Protein backbone atom coordinates (compact mmCIF):
# COMPACT_ATOMS: atom_id res chain seq x y z
CA UNK A 1 0.00 0.00 0.00
CA UNK A 2 1.26 3.49 -0.75
CA UNK A 3 2.15 5.80 2.11
CA UNK A 4 -0.44 8.24 0.81
CA UNK A 5 -3.15 5.63 1.31
CA UNK A 6 -1.79 4.33 4.57
CA UNK A 7 -0.73 7.46 6.44
CA UNK A 8 -2.43 10.40 4.79
CA UNK A 9 -5.79 9.46 3.31
CA UNK A 10 -7.49 8.31 6.54
CA UNK A 11 -7.33 11.93 7.71
CA UNK A 12 -8.70 13.49 4.51
CA UNK A 13 -11.58 11.07 3.99
CA UNK A 14 -14.15 13.11 5.98
CA UNK A 15 -13.41 16.21 3.86
CA UNK A 16 -13.42 14.18 0.63
CA UNK A 17 -16.76 12.61 1.54
CA UNK A 18 -18.33 16.07 1.32
CA UNK A 19 -17.58 16.15 -2.43
CA UNK A 20 -20.45 13.73 -2.89
CA UNK A 21 -22.62 14.51 0.16
CA UNK A 22 -22.60 18.32 0.34
CA UNK A 23 -26.01 19.68 -0.76
CA UNK A 24 -24.36 22.21 -3.13
CA UNK A 25 -22.32 19.54 -4.92
CA UNK A 26 -25.36 17.28 -5.15
CA UNK A 27 -27.38 20.08 -6.68
CA UNK A 28 -24.69 20.89 -9.26
CA UNK A 29 -24.69 17.34 -10.58
CA UNK A 30 -28.47 16.92 -10.36
CA UNK A 31 -30.09 16.72 -13.81
CA UNK A 32 -33.14 18.50 -12.30
CA UNK A 33 -31.20 21.74 -11.65
CA UNK A 34 -32.73 24.71 -13.49
CA UNK A 35 -30.68 25.35 -16.67
CA UNK A 36 -30.46 29.10 -15.96
CA UNK A 37 -29.04 28.45 -12.51
CA UNK A 38 -26.42 26.00 -13.77
CA UNK A 39 -25.37 28.30 -16.61
CA UNK A 40 -25.17 31.33 -14.33
CA UNK A 41 -23.23 29.23 -11.79
CA UNK A 42 -20.55 28.55 -14.38
CA UNK A 43 -20.33 32.23 -15.24
CA UNK A 44 -19.75 32.98 -11.55
CA UNK A 45 -17.33 30.08 -11.15
CA UNK A 46 -15.13 31.24 -13.98
CA UNK A 47 -15.36 34.93 -13.06
CA UNK A 48 -14.47 34.33 -9.41
CA UNK A 49 -12.11 31.54 -10.42
CA UNK A 50 -9.58 34.00 -11.82
CA UNK A 51 -8.90 35.22 -8.25
CA UNK A 52 -8.44 31.59 -7.14
CA UNK A 53 -6.23 30.56 -10.06
CA UNK A 54 -4.04 33.52 -10.96
CA UNK A 55 -1.63 33.11 -8.00
CA UNK A 56 -1.25 29.31 -8.38
CA UNK A 57 1.99 29.38 -10.39
CA UNK A 58 3.57 31.79 -7.88
CA UNK A 59 2.36 29.79 -4.87
CA UNK A 60 3.89 26.57 -6.14
CA UNK A 61 7.13 28.30 -7.19
CA UNK A 62 7.53 30.01 -3.82
CA UNK A 63 6.77 26.80 -1.94
CA UNK A 64 9.44 25.14 -4.11
CA UNK A 65 11.98 27.86 -3.33
CA UNK A 66 11.36 27.51 0.41
CA UNK A 67 11.69 23.72 0.19
CA UNK A 68 15.06 24.19 -1.54
CA UNK A 69 16.16 26.53 1.25
CA UNK A 70 15.15 23.87 3.79
CA UNK A 71 17.33 21.33 2.00
CA UNK A 72 14.46 19.41 0.36
CA UNK A 73 16.11 19.31 -3.03
CA UNK A 74 14.03 16.85 -4.97
CA UNK A 75 10.67 18.16 -3.66
CA UNK A 76 11.78 21.76 -4.27
CA UNK A 77 12.80 21.04 -7.86
CA UNK A 78 9.58 19.07 -8.41
CA UNK A 79 7.54 22.06 -7.26
CA UNK A 80 9.46 24.50 -9.48
CA UNK A 81 8.83 22.25 -12.49
CA UNK A 82 5.15 21.89 -11.60
CA UNK A 83 4.81 25.67 -11.17
CA UNK A 84 5.77 26.19 -14.81
CA UNK A 85 2.98 23.82 -15.89
CA UNK A 86 0.43 26.00 -14.09
CA UNK A 87 1.48 29.20 -15.82
CA UNK A 88 -1.37 31.12 -17.43
CA UNK A 89 -4.18 28.77 -16.38
CA UNK A 90 -6.23 31.73 -15.12
CA UNK A 91 -6.27 32.98 -18.72
CA UNK A 92 -8.36 29.92 -19.61
CA UNK A 93 -10.90 31.06 -17.04
CA UNK A 94 -11.04 34.55 -18.53
CA UNK A 95 -11.53 33.07 -22.01
CA UNK A 96 -14.27 30.81 -20.64
CA UNK A 97 -16.09 33.76 -19.03
CA UNK A 98 -16.07 35.60 -22.36
CA UNK A 99 -17.45 32.60 -24.22
CA UNK A 100 -20.14 31.87 -21.58
CA UNK A 101 -21.21 35.53 -21.42
CA UNK A 102 -21.43 35.73 -25.21
CA UNK A 103 -23.69 32.68 -25.26
CA UNK A 104 -25.78 33.97 -22.32
CA UNK A 105 -26.31 37.39 -23.90
CA UNK A 106 -27.43 35.87 -27.18
CA UNK A 107 -29.93 33.52 -25.56
CA UNK A 108 -31.17 35.27 -22.40
CA UNK A 109 -32.78 38.63 -21.83
CA UNK A 110 -30.47 40.02 -19.14
CA UNK A 111 -27.23 41.35 -20.55
CA UNK A 112 -24.04 40.52 -18.73
CA UNK A 113 -20.80 42.42 -18.93
CA UNK A 114 -17.59 40.40 -18.73
CA UNK A 115 -15.43 43.14 -17.24
CA UNK A 116 -17.98 43.80 -14.52
CA UNK A 117 -18.17 40.09 -13.69
CA UNK A 118 -14.40 39.85 -13.49
CA UNK A 119 -14.30 42.86 -11.14
CA UNK A 120 -16.62 41.31 -8.51
CA UNK A 121 -15.35 41.42 -4.93
CA UNK A 122 -13.97 38.12 -3.66
CA UNK A 123 -16.07 36.24 -1.13
CA UNK A 124 -14.88 35.31 2.33
CA UNK A 125 -14.03 31.76 1.19
CA UNK A 126 -11.97 33.11 -1.70
CA UNK A 127 -9.91 35.36 0.56
CA UNK A 128 -9.48 32.52 3.04
CA UNK A 129 -8.21 30.30 0.20
CA UNK A 130 -5.47 32.77 -0.65
CA UNK A 131 -4.67 33.23 3.03
CA UNK A 132 -4.27 29.46 3.55
CA UNK A 133 -1.73 29.30 0.72
CA UNK A 134 0.22 32.29 2.01
CA UNK A 135 0.27 30.90 5.57
CA UNK A 136 1.36 27.48 4.28
CA UNK A 137 4.16 28.79 2.06
CA UNK A 138 5.60 31.01 4.77
CA UNK A 139 4.96 28.52 7.59
CA UNK A 140 6.94 25.64 9.05
CA UNK A 141 5.87 23.14 6.42
CA UNK A 142 5.84 24.85 3.00
CA UNK A 143 5.74 21.41 1.34
CA UNK A 144 2.12 21.21 2.53
CA UNK A 145 1.42 23.23 -0.63
CA UNK A 146 1.61 19.82 -2.32
CA UNK A 147 -1.23 18.49 -0.14
CA UNK A 148 -3.37 21.50 -1.11
CA UNK A 149 -2.72 20.84 -4.81
CA UNK A 150 -3.34 17.14 -4.33
CA UNK A 151 -6.78 17.67 -2.76
CA UNK A 152 -7.92 20.29 -5.26
CA UNK A 153 -6.75 18.07 -8.12
CA UNK A 154 -8.65 15.15 -6.58
CA UNK A 155 -11.76 17.33 -6.34
CA UNK A 156 -11.49 18.12 -10.06
CA UNK A 157 -11.06 14.45 -10.88
CA UNK A 158 -14.00 13.30 -8.74
CA UNK A 159 -16.53 16.10 -9.26
CA UNK A 160 -15.41 17.35 -12.69
CA UNK A 161 -16.69 14.49 -14.88
CA UNK A 162 -20.12 14.53 -13.15
CA UNK A 163 -20.30 18.30 -13.53
CA UNK A 164 -19.40 18.17 -17.21
CA UNK A 165 -21.90 15.43 -17.98
CA UNK A 166 -24.59 17.46 -16.20
CA UNK A 167 -23.67 20.45 -18.36
CA UNK A 168 -24.10 18.30 -21.48
CA UNK A 169 -27.46 17.02 -20.17
CA UNK A 170 -28.93 20.27 -18.84
CA UNK A 171 -27.37 22.91 -21.12
CA UNK A 172 -26.41 20.94 -24.20
CA UNK A 173 -23.08 19.83 -25.56
CA UNK A 174 -22.34 23.23 -27.16
CA UNK A 175 -21.92 24.77 -23.69
CA UNK A 176 -19.02 22.38 -23.05
CA UNK A 177 -17.05 24.35 -25.63
CA UNK A 178 -16.97 27.27 -23.19
CA UNK A 179 -15.45 25.22 -20.39
CA UNK A 180 -11.82 24.82 -21.42
CA UNK A 181 -10.45 25.21 -17.88
CA UNK A 182 -12.63 22.45 -16.47
CA UNK A 183 -12.03 20.13 -19.39
CA UNK A 184 -8.28 20.48 -18.93
CA UNK A 185 -8.48 19.93 -15.17
CA UNK A 186 -10.66 16.82 -15.10
CA UNK A 187 -7.67 14.91 -16.44
CA UNK A 188 -4.81 13.92 -14.24
CA UNK A 189 -1.95 16.33 -14.82
CA UNK A 190 0.46 15.01 -17.42
CA UNK A 191 2.75 13.07 -15.13
CA UNK A 192 0.87 12.67 -11.85
CA UNK A 193 3.30 15.14 -10.30
CA UNK A 194 1.27 15.79 -7.16
CA UNK A 195 0.75 12.18 -6.17
CA UNK A 196 4.44 11.37 -6.78
CA UNK A 197 5.54 14.32 -4.69
CA UNK A 198 3.07 13.37 -1.93
CA UNK A 199 4.53 9.87 -1.77
CA UNK A 200 8.07 11.23 -1.66
CA UNK A 201 7.12 13.73 1.02
CA UNK A 202 5.59 11.02 3.22
CA UNK A 203 8.68 8.85 2.84
CA UNK A 204 10.74 11.80 4.00
CA UNK A 205 8.48 12.92 6.87
CA UNK A 206 5.85 10.29 7.78
CA UNK A 207 5.38 12.05 11.11
CA UNK A 208 3.82 15.00 9.27
CA UNK A 209 1.13 12.94 7.52
CA UNK A 210 -1.63 14.24 9.73
CA UNK A 211 -0.58 17.89 9.43
CA UNK A 212 -0.41 17.53 5.64
CA UNK A 213 -3.88 15.97 5.64
CA UNK A 214 -5.26 18.75 7.80
CA UNK A 215 -3.93 21.39 5.39
CA UNK A 216 -5.29 19.46 2.39
CA UNK A 217 -8.67 19.04 4.10
CA UNK A 218 -8.83 22.74 4.93
CA UNK A 219 -8.11 23.67 1.31
CA UNK A 220 -10.79 21.28 0.07
CA UNK A 221 -13.28 22.56 2.61
CA UNK A 222 -12.66 26.18 1.58
CA UNK A 223 -12.93 25.28 -2.12
CA UNK A 224 -16.30 23.60 -1.51
CA UNK A 225 -17.43 26.77 0.28
CA UNK A 226 -16.23 28.73 -2.74
CA UNK A 227 -18.40 26.56 -5.04
CA UNK A 228 -21.30 27.26 -2.67
CA UNK A 229 -20.62 31.00 -3.00
CA UNK A 230 -20.68 30.69 -6.80
CA UNK A 231 -24.06 28.95 -6.67
CA UNK A 232 -25.48 31.38 -4.13
CA UNK A 233 -24.37 34.45 -6.06
CA UNK A 234 -25.66 32.94 -9.32
CA UNK A 235 -29.10 32.52 -7.77
CA UNK A 236 -28.99 35.99 -6.21
CA UNK A 237 -28.16 37.47 -9.62
CA UNK A 238 -31.10 35.64 -11.20
CA UNK A 239 -33.42 36.97 -8.51
CA UNK A 240 -32.35 40.56 -9.08
CA UNK A 241 -31.39 40.72 -12.77
CA UNK A 242 -31.78 44.52 -12.84
CA UNK A 243 -28.44 44.76 -11.02
CA UNK A 244 -26.80 43.10 -13.95
CA UNK A 245 -28.56 44.79 -16.82
CA UNK A 246 -25.72 46.59 -18.52
CA UNK A 247 -25.65 48.01 -21.97
CA UNK A 248 -22.70 46.34 -23.64
FE1 LIG B 1 -4.15 24.41 -13.48
What would you note in describing this structure?
The chain is an all-alpha fold and 248 residues long. The chain has one domain: Up-down Bundle (Heme Oxygenase, Chain A), CATH 1.20.910.10. The protein contains 13 helices and no strands. The chain has helices at 3-21, 23-28, 35-53, 56-69, 73-85, 89-107, 114-118, 124-138, 144-171, 173-176, 180-185, 193-204, 209-239. Helix 3 (35-53) packs across helix 13 (209-239) and helix 4 (56-69) packs antiparallel against helix 5 (73-85). It is globular and about 60 Å long. The relative contact order is 0.20. The mean pLDDT is 93. Fe (ii) ion is lined by residues 86, 89, 185.
Features:
248 residues, mainly alpha, Heme Oxygenase, Chain A, globular, binds fe (ii) ion
Question: What secondary-structure arrangement, pairings included, does this model have?
Answer:
Elements: H1 3-21, H2 23-28, H3 35-53, H4 56-69, H5 73-85, H6 89-107, H7 114-118, H8 124-138, H9 144-171, H10 173-176, H11 180-185, H12 193-204, H13 209-239
Helix pairs in contact: 1-12, 1-13, 3-6, 3-13, 4-5, 4-8, 5-12, 8-13, 9-12, 9-13
This protein binds fe (ii) ion.
**Helix proportion of residues, in percent?**
over 70%
The count of helical stretches stands at 13
Share of residues in strands: under 5%
* CATH level-4 homologous superfamily: Heme oxygenase-like
**Level-2 CATH architecture:** Up-down Bundle
Query: What's the domain count?
Result: 1
Which class in CATH terms? Mainly Alpha
Q: Which structural class do you get from the secondary structure elements?
A: mainly alpha
Mean pLDDT: 93
Amino acid sequence: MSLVKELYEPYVLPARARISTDPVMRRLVDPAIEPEVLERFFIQYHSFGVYMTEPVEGWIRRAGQRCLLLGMDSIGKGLLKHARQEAGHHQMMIDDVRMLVRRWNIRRRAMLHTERLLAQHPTDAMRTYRHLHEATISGELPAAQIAIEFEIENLSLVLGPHLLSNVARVLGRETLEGLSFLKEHVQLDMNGANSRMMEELLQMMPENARTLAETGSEALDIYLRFLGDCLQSAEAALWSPQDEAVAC
